[in-house]
Amino acid sequence: MDKLLIQPLIAVLVSSLIAARSYRRKSLNLSGAIAGFAVMTIHIAVGYRYGALLLMFFFTSSKLTKVGEDKKRSVDADFKEGGQRNWVQVLSNSGIASILVLILWAKSGLQEKCLDSNDSVLVTALVGGVIGHYACSNGDTWSSELGVLSDAQPRLITTLKPVRKGTNGGVTKAGLLAAAAAGSLIGLTFVVIGFLTTKCAHDVALKQLLVIPISTLAGLGGSVIDSLLGATLQFSGFCTVRNKIVGKPGPTVEQISGLNFLDNNAVNVVSILLTTILTSIACVYVF
């Protein structure tokens, strides 16, 4: 059977199984499972590397969401068992990459390309953007999910003053280290799958290893950008009735930081977009 037929069939099969499993385990609600199926199918059908990046982000983030649920329930006013991400959350964390992957399909078909500006600046920029996208998404999620479990008091990134756990823009050393580790895992995934699926000249193949430090910086940088946006353009307040941090003003809410301009999904989209652009430029420069 031709690759043009086999790879999309594999994509549909794998995506349907994962979406159904995620729905049963409450990682995704029904709308999230449908959206997840769509974006997973696109990624895997166009290139196994892109599917691997999405799945590495999804599986590790879903697993970390379920770690320390009792502690997170006591802090997060919007806590949902298992995460139960909806279609908005799925697309805010994978929509930009899906667009880039579709452009790559239009440009190169199902032929996976190496990061090599001498061969194609556009393809290198697009692939670098996908790497930056998931390094940022993974970094932000790891930072949030592990940072809130840290015993250290978070500090607002703009002032370095101590704030309550769950405050948007609050950072800890553990959270920042987690973001860097999450980014490096995305880079490592890209390199390992790339060696198995992509044919590169020897010198170009070795140069692909530079993806790991680039994605590490993208994970850390994306988390910092997210925190800066959260501290300034996203509202954080303390509800004296619920005794929890909330993201919207109210009569019983004491403001901690930020403007009521962006919600969490919008912050994710903006931070991902900026990190995607910066990583894309870095990859064109380095490769």
Automatic annotation (TrEMBL):
Name of the protein: Uncharacterized protein
Principal place of residence: membrane
Keywords: Membrane, Transmembrane, Transmembrane helix
Coiled coil: none
Family statement: Belongs to the TMEM19 family.
Cellular location(s): Membrane
GO cellular component: membrane
Family annotation (Pfam families): DUF92
Record keyword Magnesium present: no
Membrane spanning residue stretches: 30-59, 174-197, 209-229, 266-286
Membrane topology: Multi-pass membrane protein
